[in-house]
Design goal:
By secondary structure, this protein is an alpha+beta fold. It has a single domain (7-266), classed as Creatinase/methionine aminopeptidase superfamily (Creatine Amidinohydrolase, Alpha-Beta Complex). It has 4 helices and 17 strands. The longest helix is centred in the N-terminal third of the chain and has 23 residues, at 29-51. It starts with 28 loop residues before the first helix and ends with a strand.
Length: 270
């Protein structure tokens, strides 16, 4: 789930104007162990959900699978009830970018389906998102998914001691723009820990060398949202679902990442 509580900081010119966060909450080794478990659980929940992804399944059914997995691991769904959100996972399709509400809507062959989900273990959060195509695919849709996934990898590579938040942002932006896509500006990554949304914010765009210094024990949810058309967005009348302004396709990947002396560690994996 993206941090949408202070998006006005990022609504300016075409490439945005980053307002740096000057604080970060550092995790102890013991806290990181708990977050690894929260990450493992949400990774399992999304894997099980996508194993069931096929044309004809409803988004509500996918949400139910994720919830059952999380609760079977004696953890709690991170999104359920957060800010009033009514489900375990945000499930967004095609032009929907983030915060789609699960319903009886049936997934069609060729749909790009994004699930964004989290788990809570002993008061610590994880946050994870994956996009996948249901049924038959096209080169155009697969390329969008591949570019978004790789842009996340580029951002994670820059999540190293001594770098700055802007280095993550710039790595993502450069790869996406060079691939002829656009990045959402109004919704950004964030720190994560005892709260789902902690400082600092992590934009997916902007110049290198700005923002706070990356240090050991920092944990970030890095989450590029890549659009096939304009970067501009709009929110639907349900008060949650965010879509591309021009109706073109969007894609979203996210990992919870810890900074260690040996480089970035992805926590949201089994």
């Amino acid at each position: 789930m993206t941090n949408s509580n202070s998006n006005s900081n990022y609504k300016n010119d075409l490439y945005g104007s980053v307002k740096p966060s000057n604080t970060a909450i550092i995790k102890t080794d013991e806290e990181l162990d708990i977050m690894r478990e929260a990450g493992r659980i949400v990774a399992k929940a999304l894997r099980k959900s996508f194993e069931a992804l096929e044309p004809g399944i409803t988004t509500k059914e996918l949400d139910s699978i994720a919830r059952k997995v999380i609760e079977s691991e004696n953890s709690k769904p991170a999104f359920l009830g957060l800010y009033g959100f009514p489900a375990t996972a945000c499930i967004s399709i095609n032009e929907e970018i983030v915060h789609g509400i699960p319903s009886d809507r049936k997934i069609q062959s060729g749909d790009i389906v994004t699930m964004d989900c989290g788990a809570i273990v002993d008061g610590f959060y994880s946050d994870h998102a994956i996009s996948q195509i249901a049924g038959s695919s096209t080169h155009k849709k697969q390329k969008l998914i591949d570019v978004t996934r790789e842009s996340l990898s580029k951002g994670i590579e820059s999540c190293r001691v001594g770098n700055r938040i802007g280095d993550i942002s710039h790595s993502i932006e450069k790869y996406v723009i060079d691939s002829s896509y656009e990045l959402v500006r109004e919704y950004v990554g964030h720190g994560v820990g005892k709260e789902l949304h902690e400082p600092p914010q992590v934009p997916n765009f902007g110049p290198p060398g700005v923002g706070i210094e990356i240090v050991k024990g920092l944990v970030l949810a890095i989450e590029p949202m890549v659009n096939a058309g304009t970067w501009k967005t709009k929110q639907l009348d349900d008060g949650w679902t965010v879509v591309t302004e021009d109706g073109k396709l969007s894609c979203h990947f996210e990992h919870t990442v810890a900074v260690t002396d040996n480089g970035p560690e992805i926590l949201t994996k089994e």
